[in-house]
Amino acid sequence: MDSGILTTLIEALSGTLLDILPIILVLGFFQAVAIRKVIPHLKQKLIGLGLVVLGLGVFIVGLEQCVFPIGSQMANQLTDLNFLAGYDSARVEALQNSSHIDPGIYLWTYIFAFLIGFSTTLAEPALIAVAYKARDITTGAISAWGLRISVALGVAAGVTLGVYRIVMGNPLHYYIATGYAFLIVQTWFAPKQIIPLAYDSGGVTTSTVTVPLIAALGIGLASNVPGRSPLIDGFGLIAFASLFPMITVMAYAMITEKISERKEIDEPS
Amino acid sequence: MDVFPIIVVIAFFQLAIIQKPFPDLNQTIFGVFLVVMGLFIFILGLESALFPIGEKMANDFALKGNPWWIIFFGFALGFSTTIAEPALTVIAGKAGGLAAGAGAIENTENSIANFVLGLRFTVAFSVGLAIALGVMRILRGWPLIWFIVGGYTLIVLTTFFAPQEIIGIAYDSGGITTSTITVPLVTALGVGLATSIRGRNPMLDGFGLIALASLSPIIFVLGYGILIYGVSI
């Protein structure tokens, strides 16, 4: 192991330690002042917290070794005009000077956005945690994988649409307001049990793995598409990635409900 | 299994589309190994610490009977975890540069630092408030959908008066505030509360804290933008 990895490991560990420190302080304060009881199995829980810090630290170092540098570089290369124009300098110039950009030339960027949104979400530790909890409460009626895949599809669709918006340069809030309106209407028809979980999944999805890669994609795009500013147009992808999972999770619940209803009709027990 | 899809996507694009070999294959493979190990260790810690701690505290608070303690606890947890959140620090810094560039604040280091600090406090306060409100909702059994519809209406209305420069940042800030350690703890807290209180359903009442914690920063950051930039229509 060379010293580079060791430094990043120490950095990642101190980062997660900084994350967990305020939590421990708040927990300790309220345990001492409000609850005034000795914590049962204190040693086991402290070891568990240590595992959380260590696990996240190692996880982040691994990501920095294998995913983040290549992923960000890739996002940059895929949106590079030289790459899009097949390294033909005459076409690059034509693209730079044209006022209207054919959104079709970014086809590979859309595909990349979809696949990277889907795959990073599946590896998101916070989503794994929530999916386990939901499975335990419903004693398996909501499967952990079913939830994770529907959230991942939502992030994928959201990021792709967000990329399309950056290419077109449309105002963000038109998309988001439409999404909210759709969401509220869909909530009327969704099974009641799923609604809080669906709305939670919006905030859960975008953390450790997804945010750095999506941010790199947004900033790469906004600095490479002619006429876009990375400061104004680079933001907004995370908003899309938080909105769409709510829609897909509700859709997942509606579909599984329909299927189980049909089963009950088919085989009355 | 959890990480496998990312590897496939990255490898496909690197080899088939960009058509370049991996810069350092050994390092990449070692990184994959670390990711898998790290995730495994994290999940061990999750089941042995974060989940039980959140549930036990919810249970103890519920037995204690005084609701104000747990509402205050919710606020403290939300505020303290958000103020230290690295992703927030990064995005607030970018927003500061943007505000100085647009001439909304003076382009000096001092006034940018003030803007950034103010933004971080605004977001942290809004997350604290959201969790406190969410805890109150669980205690009373209010339906989540009232808060969601009300919150979205507020967001859409505030957006009309907010400056262009803050809208993207505000909408993104909703997604970045809930970190990997906070989410399991807050979820366990909500579900634990809903399980401990008679008449509450863990699915219907227990979830929803994260939803509120991602919604309220949007409103507050938009409000902060209006305060700094002035009303724009």
What report would you give on this structure?
The complex is a heterodimer of chains A (269) and B (233). Helix content of chain A is 79%, strand content 0%. Chain A has 269 residues and is mainly alpha-helical. Chain A has two domains: 1-65, no CATH class; 67-266, no CATH class. In chain A, helix 7 (125-137) crosses helix 8, helix 9 runs parallel beside helix 13 (237-266) and helix 10 runs antiparallel to helix 13 (237-266). Chain B has one domain. Chain B has ten helices and no strands. Chain B has helices at residues 4-17, 25-64, 67-83, 86-101, 109-140, 144-161, 164-176, 182-196, 202-206, 209-229.
Please provide a brief summary of the model:
The complex is a heterodimer of chains A (269) and B (233). Chain A is mostly helical.
Radius of gyration of chain A: 22 Å
Q: If interface size is counted as residues with C-beta under 8 Å from the partner's C-beta, which chains form the largest one?
A: A-B, 107 and 105 residues
N-to-C span of chain A:
61 Å
Number of E strands of chain A:
0
Number of helices of chain A: 13
* Beta-strand content of chain A: under 5%
